[in-house]
Design a protein that fits this description.
SH3 type barrels; 7-stranded antiparallel beta sheet; 16 strands; Dbl Homology Domain, Chain A; PH-domain like; 5-stranded antiparallel beta sheet; alpha+beta
């Protein structure tokens, strides 16, 4: 085990806006000040700050120099407790919340749901652990301590489906006052769910009262638009979670926690939890805005003063704002663990089973929306590569490339045929022409509004409307203007792919309407701005390698110098098939250098 001295020698180079934050946030050891510069409604009293403790900068330095310590998972009291257990010879297990993919042989890679034996937790950012025969460093923020440390290791990785055929002997073993071991395990999980919800409510309250209210009192520093960008809809989430935790507490059986029936609460609130999608989608914008503001010292001092006055732990604002993103992804993990220790005969079994599927669906919806938002940058880059672009940007109406390919377009009145490249997005079909010499260069020609079109399949033979013989053809018919567009594919299978793509486009539009998916004007403008900068630079942005700078040549295990970018949306389930956006674009229209 590496000594604590080794960690003091190696400074940590923190990666901004990627550090994970625990959901159970609280502060300990706070020494009360004789006077508090907070006015009744929670706003920051600038006069009080100036008179009592000087400027915001003075307040910041005052608390910094006083060496206050706070306890939180991965640091402080709990960290000491973990190391004491390890020193006493106890085996401490942690469960992976997200995938940790690494290129460094000194790091421990794992998938969400894996169980890791924690061997050293001396450093609060990076722990040393073991899975089977592999050992290495891993980010402490990627795991949570297992609720049931006494559970046999060989039983833990079993899937929920397999646990329905539970060991008969487990029902006969007793724990405490007449409880079976499985009942006690269920009690532990129920207690953890209730406890973490209460901690989470306090955390949201601290953000709303400690930061947002203070910021609103400083109109000279923040506009309402800035506050909306930084904090998103976290106040809506706070109101939702307060109702949710009250519903949980009503179902909580204090005398016999294992008899609690909490599954129905998750089912009742599954629709309301979709508000997390808006928050998760906005989170990258919040990080960008905070990064911009914190380059100015007065904002750094102000945010630090807000944290200290609210008596929050020593984590920056971007870390606090990451917690709701983590929370919504943690629910399926908690429910999977609860289902594992719920007997099929338990009155809560069916509700917990349904709640697990419901919360997985919520997480999938958030994942899908996140993927869509990531695609808008690629769409903006694609548009910037098209020559002679006319009209509104693609992102004004669209956010997904459904399909693309080459078709022959036949137009009235001379039934003139033209070879064109077509790109089907949600709501519109964009038509481009290849350069005669440079086939990798495309020129914009036109677009078709798909919201006004109906798809007509055309049989091989002579078409009456255009009075020509066609093969592998279909039509787009405008219901309002009666305008007709005739297209021919080279092969029958290509025609079928296009017909299927048109069905998918309508299905995607309908789903977006049902789920309320939309892209903000700020996100559209930022994507187009980034694409414009990249286009003028004459080359694509370099692909970053988060692990490239790790010290791989050290013989002695060395603490990594950076924190990897967290994959906050990964769950312990099969990975989604990668998007074929770039394959479609690069294969058909390589970007011009």
């Amino acid at each position: 085990i590496i000594s604590a001295v080794a960690f003091d020698i190696l400074p940590l180079k923190l990666h901004p806006f990627s550090q994970s934050t625990p959901t159970g946030l609280d502060c300990v050891g706070w020494k009360q000040r004789t006077s508090s510069p907070v006015i009744a409604d929670g706003a920051l009293d600038k006069t009080a700050l100036t008179d009592d403790v000087g400027s915001e900068e003075d307040l910041y330095e005052d608390f910094r120099s006083s060496n206050h310590r706070y306890g939180h998972p991965g640091g402080g009291g709990e960290q000491l407790a973990i190391n004491e257990l390890i020193s006493d010879g106890s085996v401490v297990y942690a469960e992976a919340l997200w995938d940790h993919v690494t290129m460094d042989d000194q790091e421990l890679g794992f998938k969400a749901g894996d169980v890791i034996e924690v061997m050293d937790a001396t450093n609060k950012e990076w722990w040393w652990g073991r899975i089977l025969d592999s050992e290495g460093w891993f980010p402490a923020s990627f795991v949570r301590l297992r609720v049931n440390q006494d559970e046999p290791m060989e039983d833990y990785p079993l899937k929920v489906e397999g646990d329905k055929e539970d060991d008969a002997s487990s029902g006969t073993r007793r724990f405490g006052m007449g409880q079976t071991t499985k009942d006690q395990m269920r009690t532990n999980v129920i207690n953890e769910i209730i406890s973490t919800e209460r901690d989470y409510i306090k955390h949201l309250k601290d953000i709303c009262e400690g930061y947002i209210k203070q910021c609103r009192k400083r109109a000279d520093m923040f506009t309402e638009e800035q506050l909306k960008t930084i904090f998103g809809n976290i106040e809506d989430i706070y109101r939702c979670q307060k109702k949710f935790v009250k519903a949980l507490e009503k179902k909580f059986n204090k005398d016999h926690p294992h008899l609690s029936e909490v599954g129905s609460c998750f089912l009742e609130y599954q629709t309301e939890f979709q508000i997390y999608s808006e928050y998760c989608n906005n989170h990258p914008n919040a990080c960008m805005e905070l990064s911009r503001l914190t380059k100015v010292n007065k904002y750094v001092y102000f945010f630090e003063a807000c944290r200290l006055l609210q008596k929050m732990i020593d984590i920056s604002l971007d870390g606090f704002l990451l917690t709701p993103v983590q929370k919504i992804c943690k629910y399926p993990l908690q429910l999977a663990e609860l289902l594992k220790y719920t007997n099929p005969q338990h009155r809560d079994f069916k509700d917990v089973e349904a709640a697990l599927n419901a919360m997985k669906n919520v997480a999938r919806l958030i994942n899908e929306r996140k993927r869509r938002l990531e695609n808008i940058d690629k769409i903006a880059q694609w548009q910037s590569s098209i020559e002679d672009w006319e009209g509104e940007d693609v992102l004004v109406r669209s956010s997904e490339l459904i399909y693309s390919g080459e078709l022959t377009k036949i137009s009235h009145p001379q039934a003139k045929s033209q070879q064109r490249m077509f790109f089907l997005f949600d709501h519109q079909l964009v038509c481009c022409k290849k350069d005669l010499l440079r086939r990798d260069i495309l020129y914009y020609k036109s677009r078709i509004n798909m919201d006004e079109m109906e798809i007509l399949e055309v049989e091989d033979g002579k078409d009456k409307d255009f009075n020509i013989s066609v093969k592998n053809a279909f039509k787009l018919h405008c219901r309002e203007s009666e305008e007709v567009h005739l297209f021919c594919a080279k092969k029958p299978e290509q025609k079928q792919r296009w017909l299927k793509a048109f069905e998918n486009e309508r299905r995607q539009v309908q789903l977006d309407q049902e789920t309320g998916f939309s892209i903000t004007e700020m996100q559209k403008k930022q994507a187009m701005l980034n694409a414009s900068k990249q286009h003028h630079s004459g080359k694509p942005k370099a692909v970053t390698r988060p692990y490239y700078d790790f010290l791989m040549r050290q013989k002695h295990p060395t603490l990594p110098t950076t924190l990897p970018q967290q994959q906050v949306f990964m769950l312990a389930e099969p990975k989604r098939k990668p998007s074929n956006f770039w394959q479609n674009i690069s294969r058909l229209t390589p970007f011009r250098k």
